[in-house]
Structures are given as C-alpha cells and as structure tokens.
Request: fold
Amino acid sequence: MSKIANAFENGKAFIGFLTAGDPTIEKTVEYILAMEEAGCDLIEIGIPFSDPMAEGVVIQDANVRALKHNTTTDDVFDIVKAVREKTDVPLVFLTYINPVFFYGYEKFFKKCGELGVDGIISPDLPYEEKDEISEIARKNDVDVISLIAPTSKERIQKIAADATGFIYVVSSLGVTGMRSEIKTDLNSILEDIRDVTDLPLAVGFGINTPKQAHDIGKIADGVIVGSAIVKIIEEHGENAADALKDYVSSMKKAANE
Amino acid sequence: MNNGRYGEYGGQYISETLMNELLYLEEQYNHYINDPEFVEELNTLLKEYAGRPSLLYYAERMTEDLGGAKIYLKREDLNHTGAHKINNVLGQVLLAKKMGKTRVIAETGAGQHGVATATAAALLDMECEVFMGEVDTKRQALNVYRMELLGAKVHSVKSGTKTLKDAVNDAFRDWIARVHDTNYVIGSTMGPHPFPMIVRDFQAVISAEAREQFIEKEGRLPNAVIACVGGGSNAMGAFYNFIDDEDVKLIGCEAGGKGIDTPFNAAALTKGKIGIFHGMKSMFNQGEYGQIAPVYSVSAGLDYPGVGPEHAYLRDTGRAEYVPITDEEAVNAFEYLSRMEGIIPAIESAHAVAYAMKIAPQMDENDMIMVCLSGRGDKDVRSIAEYRGVDLGE
Reply:
C-alpha cells in the first residue's frame, strides 16, 4: 500500500512538480523539502528526458537544464534517498516511459519500492499500453497513476475502474504550461469519473494562480501545479527556496478556502 | 494486424489526450480504404495529379559500367513534388478531408514531406502548418520558401537538436492542442498505431506497380530491392508487395554518416537499441540512460534517431537486411548517377544507389536489382557542393 492516500487527508491536496536536477541534484533535494514544509501534500519528481513531448516550453527548458549537467536516473534515485532521510511526504515520479524501459522495469520498480517512491505517472503510457509496467509496479507497491483528458469521454469508464493511487485529470487540451483560463467543463468530467471510482481526483495542466487553485479546490480533491513552480526555479536558480515556500503556501491556502 | 504490433514493435505510446483521436483515425481509415469511391478518388489523384505509375527505368549505362546485375530504378523522383512523399500525403490529406478536418499539420526533415503536404493541402483546400527543425530550415531554405508559396505556414523548431525528431515533437504538441479540427499527416512509417500501417499502405503502390512492371518487362521478379531508410516509408512501400516473394532480397540502407564507429550517424537498426519513443516501440539511437541521442547524416531526410516498427520486425525475422552507407559513399553515388545516367538523385536515395554499386558487380548478369529512387536531388545540390568544398556564393 503506497502513501498516496495520505496526501488527500489534509483538506484539498496541493501537488507540486519539479524537474530533478534543475538547477542541481542538491537543490532539488532542498526544494522538495521546502515545498513539503510549506504544505505540499505530494511531490511529483520529473525524471529529465531529451524529448518531453507532452511539455510546454517552461518544463522543456527545465529538462534541458537538468540534462546539460547529465542528470541520470540514478541521480534521481539519490535525490529520493536524500529526501526520504527527512520526510515521509508521498513522492511520485513523472517520467516518459523510455528512461524506465531502458533502465529495466524490474530494476527500476524494485528501486522505487526500496526507496519509497509511491507512484509513477507516465504521459506516454495510455491505458492500452499499461501492461508494460502494471504488474511489476504492483509487486513493488508503486501506484501507476492514470491520466484522464477532456477527450477521454467513454474511455473514462475503463481507465477509472482500473486506476490506483489518485487520478490525474488533465484540465485542458494541449501540453503543460500556464494558462490564463481553463475552458473545459471540468465539473462534468469529474462527475463522470466519480460515478466509477472513489479515488481522489487531482486536476493539473495550466493552473498557476491562487484564484485557479481556489476554483479547482471547490470541485476536485487536489490541485497539481508544475510549470509555475518550475518557472520560479528558473527565475531564482539556486536561491528559490523562499519563493517556493511562499508560492506553495499561498496555493495550498487558496485551494482550501 | 493485432493493435498495431509488428512482433514486439509498434503500439500506441502516446498521451491519453490523443488516444480517442487515434482510435477514430483507425476506424475512419478502415472505413474509407474499403470504400470504392474513396479508392477511386485517390487513384485518380495519383494518376492525374501525381503522375503515377512511376517509371521502372533500366539503367543501362550504370549496369554496363558496374558489370554485373541489371539495375532498374523505380523513378519516384518523377512524381509531382519530386519524391515518393506525395503518395502518402494525397491519401492522408484526402482522408482528413473526408473526416471533416479543416487543418493538417506535418513534420519535415529535408522538406520533401512538408512540400508534399503543403501541395496536397493547397489542392484539397485545407489549412496547413509544417514543423521543421531550425537547422533544417537553414540547410533546406529553398523548401521553406516553396512551402510558403504553396500557402503553408512553416514553424522553425528551436527545441532540442533542432532537427527532424524535434519537429515531430512539436507537431505532436500542436496536435494535442487541436485534435478537434486537425489531422497530423505523419511523413513516415513511424509514430503510434495506426500511422505506420496507414503510411505503409499508401506507399505500397510503389511495390505494387514495380511487381507488375518487372513481370511485364522481364517476366520475373528482381533478385533484390534496395531502398534508403530513415523513418522508412519509401523502403516499406518498395518492400511491401515483395515480402511474400521469398526469393526477392529486401535491403534497407541506413545513414552511416561519418561512420558507424563514430557518434556521427543515424543508423538506428545498426547502432540503436530497442526503446519507446514518438508513440512506438522500435529501435532508437540512444544514450546510456535512454535519452534519445543526437544523430547525424549529410541527408536531412535520414537524420532521424529511430526507424519504423515494421522495419525492426523485418530485421528481426530476417526477411530484410539493413546496411549502413556513409556520407562519402552516398555523395559518390549522387555524383555517379548524375554523370552516368543523367539523373540527379536525392541524397537520401543516393544511399540506396551506393549499395547497388557495391553489390551489382558481385552478382550474375542474369540477376536484377531494383533501386527505389525515392526523390530527386535538386534540393541537395547546394549541400553537396559544400560537402565537396565548392563555393556557390550566396
């Protein structure tokens, strides 16, 4: 049993994303701990990839920065190890499937289990291909987090019925990145999912302001923010901890107002 | 085909946002490809607009000079827009239109697929945007202007290595945002299912014609079919209808660049490892932790770090073999065919010509080789001059 359920026990969850190794391995450890301290309920750690097809420019650039100094999958495991010495906050990996495939599914998930990685989100592993990892992940107590998009429609039934941990509801069409407005009829999508499962539903893609966090907090169980956090790290480099804390606590608060 | 698998290769490794659209595309494709009206419309376009069937040309001087197997060239370079790419785009853009889409997007490396897509979009009155790596927009500037003339908008892609793979990334990113009105007209037998199947089927006209032409001219099939392989669409098209003819050897020529013992090549089958990228499980050039490697070739059209899944399967089963051809060998073949036959081949196709030059002399005079001359070389004249150190000025 993973610790993901814990993330949703403290009001509306705030889920923060950062890219491992941006700007350095050590800073990623520091920033994860800073976000946790400021009220982040679950942290998504992005394993950097050369070709992050589902990302907008902000996170693409973070991948480039992390890979410039050769952040490897083993480095990312070292980050988890260092974080786990200080906190039990639920951690999930956000990773394209090729680095996992290349590392070897057995070896990768065994390591996740040992180090306490609670889940994996893979933007290029839809329902049809989940058998690649579902069995091995389950064996190692790692939840495979399912994504549901505004285009999923009748697919919601089978995806939600099979989901574990929480469900990542994609707020809008397109890649990750900050948006001023979310036009999708999220309410009806969330209702459709709730007809199928009792798992917590967290909404991500495009969310960056406290107002948006507040609006999502009213209808979902959690708010996921990536690009806005990565942007803070981009702007503050090695001195982003305070800015991150301020941002995370304001978003956590807004989601619960 | 079992859900887009070729042995262990293929599949649909793509964002959930695109899944329903891919399923819809497959359903619509299966519907229209069995609709006599659609098939008739497409065949008319291929004949009246693209200029099919393409010639099967006996390269007599080349054959005599090399002294061995008879060499035939399947002249895809004579198609409208100068390459095999038009076969696929007429099919895909017509399909998009039937599906009610108003906009098509495409990636392009050398620019041939971009030009072909822009052409079909102009003809069929569709909005068209093409994604092209910044590096490629520079080495193929003329094709950028050509696409613009045809009414397309060209996006210069500045992410990653700024070449073909990054253009594919940005095309997918665009599509994720506009699935409702847009079809992604992918240029090769790659990407998530159903693309490798659709592109293969639309390119299979090459081998369907060639088979008949050989029987008509020679009363029998060739001993070997040779084609260049980047993503692998002209090769898949040239191989497909010969796959069951076990006596016909199928040979794909990959971009060996500066040599397969250097990092400067794009030979995914020779040097790559199995991986999952751009929606498919296949062979990819990649680094120690599964990061997709920067690749290199003198040919922008072969400068891709992967290969279509069906080629990986044909390689594993032994039905086809794949060989690397270096820049130097390809440029020599480019010059050789120009002087020997008065045909300037695309530098991509010159990779296939180069391998024919290697094996023809070792074969019997009664043997026959078909080289798929996938495109014309006008677009490459400047870069070959540069390669040879000839200054053409601005």
